[in-house]
Fold:
Amino acid sequence: MAKPPLSMEPTGWFQVAWCAEIPVGAVHTMKYFGREMVAWRTASGQVAVFDAYCEHLGAHLGYGGRVDGENLVCPFHGWEWNREGRNVCIPYENHPNKGRRIRSYPVAERNEAVWIWYDTAGRAPYFEVPDIFTAFGDDRTAADYYPPVPAATLFRPGLELHPQYVMENGVDFAHFKFVHKTPFVPEFTRHDFSGPVSYVDFTIAFDENVREDQVGSGVESINAGLGCSITKSWGMVDNRTMPAVTPVDDRTCDVRFTVWIGRKPGDDSPEIGRYGKTMAGFVIEQFDADIEIWSHQRYSDPPALSRKEFDGFTALRKWAAQFYPDGARAEQPTERSPR
Structure:
């Protein structure tokens, strides 16, 4: 596939792991945005993400590096670095090197996932990762759902696609029948692209002639930039999902998908069981069908849109432009309060 015309370095929050993958004391190697990185968890439970190389002589901290208390120790000469990437100890000197710093990234742990904030201009985060239980304004909590990690997740590394493909899927009503083989007739009830966090809702009927008062299901989506999306489904199998697409280099992305399935009445088991895995499997299967399309897709600009498609796709692409280095606003936008 040719290099996509869209920048693979958009601003925003991007998932780099599930929380359970980085236990206390772990040093986790990874590559995102064309950079070698390490994620590590301190003795007090805090996660940090660095560029991978020690600023002393360039040793890779993911190969032999270790966590000592609140610091990451280089395997080469024992230099210690704190969560901000600052050198705090040189074991054979009286003072640390205050002039060098490893690039560290703002980190958030939310929705069972580890997120980093990436911005080519070095700006601080100006919107947050939405909480999958509080952001929709209902009274459901994590206790009402089976724990999703690892049994109700999907991970597809190194796919030739772009985060924006996934976001555009959220306004694409026509693909339901052809990709997902469903009789669903989505009717969009909300397109709100006025801030860096956008909102897209739709209802689902099983027949084009159904009356509005007979519609009994739908999906609400919250999109925080191009890397983070959460959905709430109602009227169907009670589930919430979190697709996350993170650029690896200038051609490929890692795709993660996490599914929360609502508990059956009276089931308070600590692990997800057969019912939860089966329901999550159905949801993941539908998402995987989209991935098959995205991973072989060419970005079409301008697209040949039909009349009914025009408003949704045009609004989303205009919204997405703010996150690219050549399309960012001169001033930091402010997040609109949800709902």
Observations:
- Confidence is low (pLDDT under 50) at residues 328-339.
